[in-house]
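step: validate -> pass
step: tokenize input -> pass
step: predict -> running
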Amino acid sequence: MKKLSLILSLSLLCFSALQLSAQCTDGRYTGTPYGQTMSTVHGYGTGTKYDGSTQSLDMDIYQPTGDNYAYRPLMVLAFGGSFTTGLRQSPDIVQICQEFAKSGMVCVSIDYRLGTLNSADSCMYQAVIRGIQDMNAAIRYFYKDAQTVNQYHIDTTQIFCGGTSAGAFIGLNKGYFKIDPQFFSRPIPNDLINSMLSLGGPDAGNTGSPGYNSNIKGIIDLCGAVLDSLWIQPGDPILIGVHGTADGTVPYYYDSIGGLTDIKKRFFGGGNIIDRFHHMGLSDLTDSIYTFYGADHAPFVLPIPLIPPASLYMDTTLKLLHNYLGRNITCDSRMLPSGINDIGGNVFVSAFPNPSETSMTIISHDPKDMLIQVVALDGRVVETVDMPAYSTQQIRRDVSYAPGMYLVNYLDATGSAKLKTDKVTFY
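step: predict -> pass
step: emit ->
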């Protein structure tokens, strides 16, 4: 194992060298150059629980303050608790969200449906599937936002998801899910098939923002396991994780004896995932699991995360995440236009419908002649239109208007003074 870990580390160092050109040099993602703020979205989705009741799902969104970037990576995390207990305010998840909001990411802690009817295997599979459905709903929420009002400025090509323990189960089994028999190292469990049929599968879109994407770039695996390590294939999402070798709750290695009475021990843990990466060939290695030798389950969590040794494990986990994410997030330095906060102004114009799929009508009830300037969030001026007093103009989505949010600047007739700025969205 030590030899493998050394080879793994050397391989990661080589991969890191190849990625340096994409790494930010201003402290983003590797440090914490910003402040952070948190807000709660109520009802990002709804879903039917194990007992037939309906649950409305909330999420806490942590954002950086003091940055002005047009595109931000997103991290969506779920708490631990064996799918039966836990809260999105779990201290370990809150600490990670606050840390990476201050690094420049948007970080989210989600609710997901808890509870199982009994301890049968089918109930455990159903709990995992419900968790994946709820994770997908949260991710779709941000795809929808990016394609409509763009409140959070998410770069949808740089979304990571996962969490601690059960949350890591959700991330791993979402990211690597396969149902084709060729991707199973053993017969497909009938209970899994029946659970999928009863719930509509992990991609069922009825829990929130249906019709939008839920693709991810990478997985945050903090002491989780995947149903079958053969699910992990070249080209799948990248991964950063930690796992303890003495984990008695989610074993580091598949445990066939313990699995006779506990389905979680029939999943493949961090040691199996490392072996799978190694089997696929170190030359293609883009993923990593850091091993906590001798550590039990999720050693960075309660009861006292701020006192050693838990604080030391958390410190190491945060450093690993910073290092890995800093290496694998493409540095996008496009800024929001400086006038993005200048919404308002004492001129009487309006654009509708907003958002729109094809065109918007702009009506002026103002006695001044103006210029309309449509600006993309990267600062590119898409279109400039004369706006005489008391007139009506249209802006149409054509090849210049990709889906997303734009700023409409209303300038004086000479184009030298900005009178008002509106946000508009084409989807």
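step: describe -> DSSP finds seven helices and 15 strands in the chain.
step: cleanup -> pass
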